[in-house]
Amino acid sequence: MKEASLTSSTSSESDQAVVLFYQYFALSSSSSSPPDQTFETWWKDAKRSVETLHDHQQRICTDLNLTGRVLIAEEGINGTVAGSRDNVEAYIHEMKKYHHPQELLSNRLDDNNKEAKRQRPSDGDCLFRNVDWKTSFVKGNKNVSGNDSVKPLFPDLKICIVKEIVSTGGLVDVHDIPVETGRHLSPEEFHEMLTAYASEENHGKVNDNTDNKLPPIALIDVRNTFEHNIGHFVNPQTGEKALNPEMTTFSSFDKFCQQHADDLKDKQVLMYCTGGIRCEKASVMLKRKGVNNVAQLSGGIHRYLERYGKDGFFKGLNFTFDKRVAIKPDMSSQRTSLDDGKSESSSKAEYEVVGTCVECTAPFDELDGSRVCTVCRDLVLVCCDCQSSLLEYHCSRHAAWKDCYFSFLEVFDSEQLCEQKLKLEKIRESLELLPNTKNTRRALARQIDKVEQRISELDTGKVTVQNNAPRRCRSCLEPNGVCDGRCWGFWKASSSSSFTLDKGIQKGRRSHQCPL
């Protein structure tokens, strides 16, 4: 069955909608910003506020039959939920009426009601009154019975209480964001600035010696590497893609700031992410390193593509963290069906493929849950031709390990394993004097131990070489013939809804859930 396609046009009753949103509950310490009484109420008993909001989300999402991911912390909320168009609109309507918690708000009495019944708080008290609700629609399709149907964009519903909705390891306090964050640019302002740098009239002013000199720009993509690989903004001055901090988790952005702050201090920094939430903290982290001229795209790539589509400076695909996988600049779905293996075609304008196969560098941008790095388990771009020739996949960060780091050792004999061990030891030794490599060296040490144990088992006859062992999926460990890619993140097969009350970010396996 053909997959549903994303569209911004008028939708039928059978259409599915998805909404992205976030809200930080920051109390500004700036004298120019009046205190927000609603947020003050939240912080009077933040722990209780979080639990009440969690219960509220559980109730309305269940009642409206929504699926998706909602992260709740004392600092705010970050969500992506999907369902029928009517139910998503009802969800937004309910959120706009949310006043929390009623027990902590002062009683508002109706003067005309002698029984002094509580009057509902005004819209000005709503916790989510200033949220930018980014809504898009997925068209329904005729199934084999001739009825309209659309596949759920998420396998289930997860509502999690976490320490931070965007994890920095506690480096950025939410109350610092209004004071320290970068300058917010609307999609129009962001585009206008890039256009100015791209124009012939201003191009020569970047390096001239007059008062009209324009500072060189530095475009920074604050998303994960696999997001950046399939789509990114292009620097109009150089024609090169935006800077990629090479993150697998957002908390590593501080390391990028430490390494590149000196190079960025004299530049106009323009940063962006999917919906804006990561930029709020990323700009704070960079400015604290002495980079003052920092601006960020308000509403993220999502709002920019709505406004400029294929005519803008964003090239490639925008990763979505749901079963659409990615959307083109014209806001149509790109995704590949897990049922029939066929990429969805689009009658809308084509787009420029900016992704490349990690092995042969051929143009390729189809991500799949069955193709992940055997070391870090991040999604990897591997073209069809290269897939058949590789035992396991390695991302660009771990390309130097592809001859010696394997999760499944049953196909190797003792001699091959000894060669792997020597290479692993050399890599580990080369990192000894480098800063911030403790975790990497630890991972290598674990792999060396694993190889040594396998060699010992082969030498003692406890195990034998399995030359014909099937290639297995790194995520679920199942053979490729069994694993169909539904073991990674949003590709997982549908299951019953679950509501998780996590005391902090789950350790171990990362879930890649809905950062915007």
TrEMBL record:
Residues 434-461 form a coiled coil. Keywords: Coiled coil. SMART domains: RHOD (SM00450). The keyword Coiled coil applies. Residues 213-313 form the Rhodanese domain. InterPro entries: Rhodanese-like_dom, Rhodanese_C, TrhO, TRHO_N. This is Rhodanese domain-containing protein.
